[in-house]
């Protein structure tokens, strides 16, 4: 057995009146000599039993039984560190949330004010630095008092109290708590046996430090640091004499002496501590009287934890459920409720340090945009999630409503799926058309593929992935005026339902659904997508986080990454916990993704979301849910993707959002949040599509440019260029471009030829006012005055 380490802090206890009386009491008491002669084990077992329970003498407990049980008992206290609050940080390392059910913040003894250390020792165990695990003098005195007064006086040392607190802190159920606090002889003997072992393996300072960090100080504060912040809003290193005495007095009965609940009783107890400190010579009598004359002055900081107290509650909720899954080894949702509660306790008490993916700038941008667009007290709700392309990092998640219970609030993380505190999700609307578009291009359909698309249509003959037939489907356009011939580009820009119904049949329902699955799409409930024809219009209910992650996959040129919110976790000892990273894979070829992105850019410039540009290259897709149940928008730049929704969560059958489209509130939220989130960041461009997709592009208007500049501009749009021989008369300056064929502003197949006509200047004015003769260099079809004009 190795010797006990010397104490690093040992207050000098002068022989005051109290200590003299103790010595006289020992000489006058004939039992004292007897007790010194008894074996240590018997003394430990019997004395502690009688001190704790003065009425058990007739229960048949003998010294021999106590000694036998005591000596054969397992002495090593196998305990974990005391429960500690878990802290969550954003990507920059700023604290955003805490989780706890016991508010504690452990500190080293050197971080506790010396006056606090003295006060707790003086009132709880003044001979702490002189005795071992059992204080014979204190025990005998307590026994004598119990016999004389028939009232129990405690005989536990500070080490024994530390042991009891360790055992209590480790309990997980009500039954376990009752067992370790039961008023039995066996329990007291067991505590003493553990205390003896601690005294052999820990220094006195280490025991005191442990006790100060684990003791309960009332009002939900565990440990001296938490108590100091709870009552005085200062660290334990800054405590004054009066404050230290108040805290030291609480631990005997944390409820009765709680200064918030019972200030008068707390003050009486504080004064007892002050006069005890004076009695032991650690402060003067004048100091005690002066301090006792002062009223209790609190500067409270109420401990708040959980997501409701966080400034980013919905992101916090997402992280919470990711952590529960991490701590359960990915099994949280398959556990029983009792097992799940055990994991929750682990999170609340484990003292973990969690670094997350939260971008505070993006989160602030999302929150501002949501509440600028949808009032927090409205029955309607706006939701948004932002995901980083190429990494899957969830950068922001928010709702227009405040978090919590009560009017105008919600505790459901409506932007997330059910496994992250969300609900059943909402319809994706026409944002789901992007997957059928990608499937069509993947199967080699050219962009010029067109269908005559009326205001309504009927499609039949489709089969699901099991080969089963689907019902006949008769969709119609949201605008009856939308009728005509559309191709992959124009049909997407104008979100023509009847066009996409025919395209889905051409592609195949199963292939369209499989493409959505490649990009991580599933129902918000976790169930697989319904393989029905109407899925192309977004009839599957999904969540905004996974929709944003899917669109981030297109932004990353076909590299889809599962969304993640946690990047690193360390435990109380600084050991790293294994954290699953994002699962990234190239789900479609880069050129194909580039083509999809090129088409989606036109939605913001020429399609349903005209006017929602953000001052940098961006792409997206609007969505209006079936029967006006909701409106959705998903959009992205190369470095950030976001999905937004607007709906009434009270119920789909009664509450709709008539007259609202994806380009309205959802696109407005997206536009505002993306502009703010990306401000100051480089305006990256999309990769130009390379490949034979049969795509078209708009011929640039290069009139008035130099020939070299015009050639460069046209080639940049992937057209081949030739210059007509000779020159033509025009209003443009001589030597500059007079016109092109095809004209600027018209669509032509990518890679096709554009002819440049060079100006020779304005024609000479004829004297007789007749039209000038045609130039011999003009092409036969060149427009002349009187033949239609240019």
Structural write-up:
The chain is α+β, with helices and mostly antiparallel strands. Among the domains are: 1-72 and 117-215, no CATH class; 426-678, Beta-lactamase (3-Layer(aba) Sandwich), CATH 3.40.710.10; 695-790, Trypsin Inhibitor V, Chain A. 37% of the residues lie in helices and 14% in strands. It has 25 helices and 26 strands. The protein has a 5-stranded mixed sheet with strand order 2-1-5-15-16. Strands 7-6-20-19-18 form a 5-stranded antiparallel sheet, sandwiched between helices. Strands 22, 23, 24 and 26 form a 4-stranded mixed sheet that branches. A hairpin with a 5-residue loop joins strand 15 and strand 16. Helix 12 crosses helix 13 (263-279), helix 17 packs antiparallel against helix 24 and helix 18 packs across helix 23 (590-605). The model is unreliable at 1-46, 48-64, 142-154 and 782-790 (pLDDT under 50).
């Amino acid at each position: 057995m190795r010797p006990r380490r010397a104490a690093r802090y040992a207050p000098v206890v002068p022989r005051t009146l109290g200590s003299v009386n103790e010595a006289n009491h020992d000489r006058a008491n004939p039992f004292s000599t007897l007790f010194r002669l008894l074996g240590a084990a018997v003394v430990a077992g019997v004395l502690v039993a009688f001190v704790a329970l003065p009425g058990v003498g007739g229960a048949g407990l003998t010294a021999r039984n106590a000694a036998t049980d005591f000596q054969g008992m397992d002495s090593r206290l196998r305990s974990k560190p005391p429960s500690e609050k878990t802290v969550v940080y954003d990507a920059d390392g700023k604290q955003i949330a805490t989780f706890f059910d016991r508010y504690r913040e452990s500190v080293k003894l050197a971080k506790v004010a010396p006056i606090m250390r003295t006060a707790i020792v003086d009132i709880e165990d003044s001979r702490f630095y002189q005795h071992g695990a059992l204080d014979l003098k204190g025990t005998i005195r307590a026994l004598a008092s119990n016999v004389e007064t028939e009232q129990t006086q405690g005989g536990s040392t500070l080490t024994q109290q530390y042991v009891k607190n360790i055992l209590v802190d480790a309990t997980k159920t009500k039954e376990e708590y009752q067992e370790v606090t039961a008023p039995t002889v066996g329990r007291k003997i067991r505590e003493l046996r553990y205390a003896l072992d601690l005294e052999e393996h820990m220094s006195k300072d280490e025991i005191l430090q442990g006790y100060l960090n684990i003791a309960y100080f009332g009002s939900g504060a565990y440990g001296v640091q938490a108590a100091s912040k709870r009552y005085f809003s200062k660290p334990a290193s800054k405590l004054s004499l009066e404050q230290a005495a108040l805290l030291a007095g609480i631990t005997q009965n944390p409820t009765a002496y709680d200064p918030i609940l019972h200030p008068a009783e707390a003050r009486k107890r504080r004064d007892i501590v002050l006069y005890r400190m004076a009695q032991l010579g650690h402060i003067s009598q004048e100091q005690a009287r002066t301090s006792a004359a002062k009223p209790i002055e609190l500067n409270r900081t109420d401990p708040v934890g959980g997501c409701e107290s966080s400034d980013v509650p919905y992101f916090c909720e997402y992280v919470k459920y990711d952590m529960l899954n991490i701590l359960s080894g990915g099994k949280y949702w398959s556990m029983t409720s009792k097992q799940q509660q055990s994991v929750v306790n682990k999170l609340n008490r484990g003292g973990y340090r969690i670094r997350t993916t939260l971008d505070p700038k993006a989160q602030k941008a999302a929150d501002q945009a949501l509440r600028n667009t949808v009032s927090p007290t409205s029955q309607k709700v706006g939701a948004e999630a932002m995901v980083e392309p190429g990494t899957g990092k969830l950068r922001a998640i928010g709702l227009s409503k405040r978090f919590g219970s009560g009017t105008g609030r919600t505790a459901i993380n409506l932007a997330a799926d059910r496994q992250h505190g969300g609900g059943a999700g909402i319809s994706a609307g026409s944002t789901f058309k992007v997957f059928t578009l990608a499937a069509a291009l993947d199967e080699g359909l050219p962009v010029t593929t067109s269908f005559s698309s009326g205001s309504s249509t009927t499609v039949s003959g489709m089969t699901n992935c099991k080969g089963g037939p689907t019902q006949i489907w008769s969709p119609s356009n949201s605008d009856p005026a939308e009728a005509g011939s559309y191709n992959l580009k124009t049909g997407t820009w104008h979100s023509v339902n009847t066009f996409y119904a025919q395209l889905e049949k051409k592609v195949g329902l199963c292939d369209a659904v499989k493409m959505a699955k490649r990009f991580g799409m599933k129902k918000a409930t976790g169930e697989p997508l319904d393989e029905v024809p109407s899925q192309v219009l977004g009839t599957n209910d999904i969540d905004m986080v996974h929709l944003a992650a899917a669109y981030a996959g297109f932004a990353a040129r076909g590299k889809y990454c599962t969304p993640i919110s946690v990047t690193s976790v360390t435990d109380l000892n600084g050991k790293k916990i294994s954290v699953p990273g994002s699962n990234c894979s190239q789900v479609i070829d880069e050129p194909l993704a580039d083509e999809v992105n090129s088409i989606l850019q036109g939605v913001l410039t020429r399609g349903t979301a005209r006017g929602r540009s953000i001052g940098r290259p961006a792409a997206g897709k609007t969505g209006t849910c079936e029967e006006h149940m909701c409106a959705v928008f998903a959009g992205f730049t190369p470095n950030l993707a976001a999905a937004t929704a607007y709906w009434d969560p009270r119920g789909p059958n009664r509450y709709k959002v008539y007259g609202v489209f994806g380009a309205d509130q959802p696109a407005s939220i997206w536009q505002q949040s993306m502009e703010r989130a990306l401000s100051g960041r480089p305006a990256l461009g999309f990769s130009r599509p390379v490949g034979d997709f049969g795509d078209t592009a708009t011929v640039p208007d290069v009139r008035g440019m130099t020939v070299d500049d015009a050639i460069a501009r046209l080639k940049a749009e992937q057209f081949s260029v030739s210059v007509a021989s000779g020159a033509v008369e025009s209003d443009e300056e001589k030597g500059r471009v007079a016109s092109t064929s095809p004209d600027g502003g018209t669509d032509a197949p990518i890679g096709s030829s554009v002819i440049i006509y060079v100006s020779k200047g304005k024609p000479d004015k004829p004297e007789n006012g007749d039209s000038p003769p045609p130039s011999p260099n003009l092409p036969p079809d060149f427009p002349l005055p009187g033949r239609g004009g240019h």
